[in-house]
Write a structure and sequence with these properties.
By secondary structure, this protein is an alpha+beta fold. The chain has eleven helices and five strands, in the order ββαααβββαααααααα. It has two domains: 148 residues, Beta-Lactamase (2-Layer Sandwich); 246 residues, Helix Hairpins. Helix 4 packs antiparallel against helix 5, helix 5 crosses helix 8 and helix 6 packs antiparallel against helix 11. The longest helix is centred in the middle third of the chain and has 64 residues.
């Protein structure tokens, strides 16, 4: 089949539409939903058993596809912006979320609408130009450089950010279309005597998928809290390290000042030694806090992606079942035995992918709650040392008031008291945030049985389908 010539025309699809394709490990298309074939412009028989590159647009940097294939062949999911080309040469942009599972790959796509998308289009133009000069290696290097300039330490970090931004933007755009009347809600028309029919069973599958979707949508609404905590953890790490250094310097200055005063500063020397001991013990506790912050950040980073992946997978499952119901509700629509077998295998594959992702989400949630508990304990211990430091410094202020030669100490202790008061507020807020996120993570973790039950229910219903 001859490759079409690109034209400056966009193949239209709506922001509420999702489409998927399933390929083998070589990238050969095995199946897909109706939106996929409609937007690509190919008849089903023309695109099945063809390589996925049949819809590749020449404006796409090859380096992006290399990155994609390297990732999924390592059995890791990836998210990437892709410009595709329809049969007539028209283009259409998607955010592609590709998930490896057993001997196949699942790619779920939707229309990108966030501010990140505008940035990516410009980056791809630069990468494409660089590829013509220095090949894929130069293009990958340029991508890494641009992402670092934008504050991303890796492509993986960027893709997590982009996925969340695009999904939030999509949800907002879809809501606006519904609110304005440009989109109509799907109406499930079912008669009482249809429960045992194909349409009745598909209706039950759709409603069950929608129940799962409701759970994951509610969990996704908590995403901002997880992202905010992840950002605050990094900020708090810097703050706590700075706190440790300032406490150390103040105790060092107190020791120097007590040596300068010699015999006149014996009492204050004892206070200075207490400050030194407290600062050393606090430093050890701070090191533990930093270690647990790193564990929580790592756990949160993985969890944020898994929650996003679960949501888009269950959205795809719900949309696909709705797509089949639309067919059945259309007057005169027929589904052949072969088509129904394809529907069954597709829904089962979507369920298996979601089941794998949701189990990984729950595993990471369990690990995260443990790390959050440990972090909470370490913060509480550090708060104890901070309170101890406050008593030492207040005692120092009292002692300096007794000596007319202790002006240097007075400055040190007054600064220390202010520092400790600020630290108490910071640590209280920090611990409250950690406790809140742990409670939210525990709530999501408690949905394990309900999610498993609903997914199993969909699986049973799908396997009972007959054309």
């Amino acid at each position: 089949m001859a490759k079409p010539t690109p034209i400056d025309k966009e193949a239209q699809f709506r922001v509420n539409e999702l489409f998927f394709s399933i390929t083998d490990l070589r990238g050969i298309i095995l199946t897909g939903n109706d939106v996929f074939t409609r937007v690509s412009g190919y008849e089903r028989e023309d695109i099945i058993a063809k390589p996925h590159s049949i819809i590749r647009h020449p404006d796409m940097p090859r380096a992006v596809f290399k990155l994609l294939w390297d990732t999924i062949q390592a059995n890791k999911p990836i998210v990437a912006y892709v410009k595709n080309m329809a049969k007539d040469g028209a283009y259409y942009w998607v955010l592609a979320c590709v998930f490896p599972l057993k001997d196949k790959y699942l790619s779920i796509r939707f229309k990108p609408t966030s501010a990140v998308f505008s940035l990516v289009q410009e980056v791809y133009k630069k990468m494409l130009a660089e590829e013509k000069i220095s090949g894929m290696e130069g293009s990958v290097k340029l991508l890494t450089q641009i992402l670092e300039e934008k504050g991303f330490r890796s492509y993986e970090e960027f893709m997590r950010f982009a996925m969340i931004e695009e999904m939030k933007s999509k949800d907002t755009a879809v809501k606006e279309l519904f609110d304005s009347g440009q989109l109509s809600r799907f109406v499930l028309r079912q008669k009482r005597n249809e429960e045992d029919s194909l349409k009745g069973k598909m209706s039950l599958i759709y409603r069950t998928c929608r129940d799962v979707d409701h759970i994951f949508s509610n969990n996704f609404k908590k995403m901002d809290n997880f992202v905010t905590l992840n950002k605050r953890l990094t900020e708090k790490s810097v703050y706590i390290l700075d706190l440790a250094e300032e406490i150390r310097l103040l105790s060092l200055n107190a020791s120097v000042e007590s040596n300068r005063m010699k015999d006149a500063g014996r009492t204050l020397s004892a206070v200075a030694n207490e400050m030194k001991d407290n600062s050393q013990e606090s430093a050890a506790k701070i090191a533990e806090v930093i270690h647990h912050i790193e564990n929580v950040v790592k756990g949160l980073t993985g969890l944020i992606f898994e929650l996003s992946a679960s949501k888009i997978q269950v959205e795809m499952m719900t949309f696909f079942s709705q797509e089949i119901l639309n067919k059945l509700q259309t007057s005169g629509a027929k589904i052949t035995v072969a088509e129904m077998q394809d529907v069954k295998s597709n829904v089962i594959f979507l369920i298996e992918t979601l089941d794998r992702t949701s189990r990984e989400t729950l595993r990471k949630l369990g690990s995260l709650t443990e790390h959050l508990s440990e972090l909470g304990i370490r913060i509480r211990q550090l708060q104890g040392y901070v309170r101890g430091a406050e008593l030492i410094h207040v005692n120092g202020i009292i002692e300096t008031a007794k000596s007319q030669h202790a002006q240097g100490f007075s400055v040190i202790f007054n600064r220390a008291v202010k520092l400790v008061k600020a630290a108490k507020i910071e640590l209280d807020e920090f611990r409250e945030g950690v406790v809140m996120i742990r409670e939210e993570a525990t709530t999501i973790l408690g949905q394990d049985r309900e999610i498993t039950f609903l997914l199993d229910k969909v699986g049973v219903l799908v396997r009972e389908l007959n054309a």
